[in-house]
């Protein structure tokens, strides 16, 4: 009896604090997806395709049936802001941002904007220029990978909520 009460209190405590299991949107209803991007294939697009395949979504080149959702990559870019400077006026700490703007076009002609922004701080040591550049490249790749993950998660959430609305209305 005590175990049941403890289990009940633990469950109530976890659910009341807003805890959500990661990947709870794995029940996605997306079977196929078309990606449209006018950008050249790079690390972000590769990470995005990898993330799509990890979620068991088939990529198609052309949309003939108008039932396949379309993920249109509008733009993605890197941005840098100086957070602090050395006494000699050179940047000491920078904030790196990777921003993705995409649009999800649904089969019912609705579109949803998906905006992702990933931020990291980066210490800019002018005495170690080579190490600084390679470290910055690694950080940017990690940011692109995380942005692809977040974009697909937002896509799954948006699609599943819209899919429920469509199913409920029919």
UniProtKB/TrEMBL annotation:
Instruction: List, in alphabetical order, the GO biological process terms annotated in this UniProt record.
Output: Gram-negative-bacterium-type cell outer membrane assembly; lipopolysaccharide transport
Q: Does the keyword GTP-binding apply?
A: no
Checking InterPro entries in the record gives: LPS_assembly_LptE (IPR007485)
Keyword check for Metal-binding: no
Query: Any idea which GO molecular function terms this record carries?
Result: lipopolysaccharide binding
Tell me the Pfam families matching this sequence.
LptE
**Which keywords accompany this UniProt record?**
Cell outer membrane, Lipoprotein, Membrane, Palmitate, Signal
Q: At the top level of its lineage, which domain of life is listed?
A: Bacteria
GO cellular component terms, A-Z: cell outer membrane; transporter complex
As for family, the record states: Belongs to the LptE lipoprotein family.
Quaternary structure note: Component of the lipopolysaccharide transport and assembly complex. Interacts with LptD.
Describe the task this protein carries out. Answer: Together with LptD, is involved in the assembly of lipopolysaccharide (LPS) at the surface of the outer membrane. Required for the proper assembly of LptD. Binds LPS and may serve as the LPS recognition site at the outer membrane.
What PANTHER family does UniProt report for this protein, alphabetically?
Answer: LPS-ASSEMBLY LIPOPROTEIN LPTE (PTHR38098)
Protein name as it appears in the record: LPS-assembly lipoprotein LptE
The species this protein was found in: Candidatus Providencia siddallii
Upper classification of the source organism reads: Bacteria, Pseudomonadati, Pseudomonadota, Gammaproteobacteria, Enterobacterales
- Its gene is lptE
